Task: inverse folding
């Protein structure tokens, strides 16, 4: 993942994130979680791809979340790992909402948006 950032390879970074998720889910040994994640992966893949492509040169900003998750795993600190994952998801959500607002797609004709 870091190598992809250093070489400015957004597509490689995208694949590294997906592999990170896949390995993490497998490591839990939880088949229910595996099925849930498998169900949302098609949407997650599309959204993650768009996020990375739209971020262009700022996609490296995301790596600290993954470093924090790995450190939490290495120190057996699940709360720290969950907090890093939640922060990453929140960051991605805020980015996506910002892009939608800027694009005009988030505008509602009913006067609410």
Result:
């Amino acid at each position: 993942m870091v190598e992809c950032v250093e070489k400015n390879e957004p597509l490689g970074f995208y694949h590294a994130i997906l592999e990170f998720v896949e390995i993490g889910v497998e490591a839990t040994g939880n088949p229910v979680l595996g099925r849930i994640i498998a169900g949302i992966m098609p949407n997650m893949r599309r959204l993650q791809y768009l996020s990375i492509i739209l971020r262009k040169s700022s996609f490296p900003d995301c790596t600290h979340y993954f470093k924090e998750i790995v450190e939490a795993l290495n120190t057996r600190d699940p709360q720290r790992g969950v907090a890093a994952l939640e922060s990453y998801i929140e960051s991605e959500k805020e980015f996506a909402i910002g892009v939608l607002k800027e694009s005009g797609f988030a505008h509602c004709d009913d006067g609410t948006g």
In short: The chain has a mean pLDDT of 82. Residues 2-103 form one domain. The chain is about 75% helix and 0% strand. The chain has one domain: 2-103.
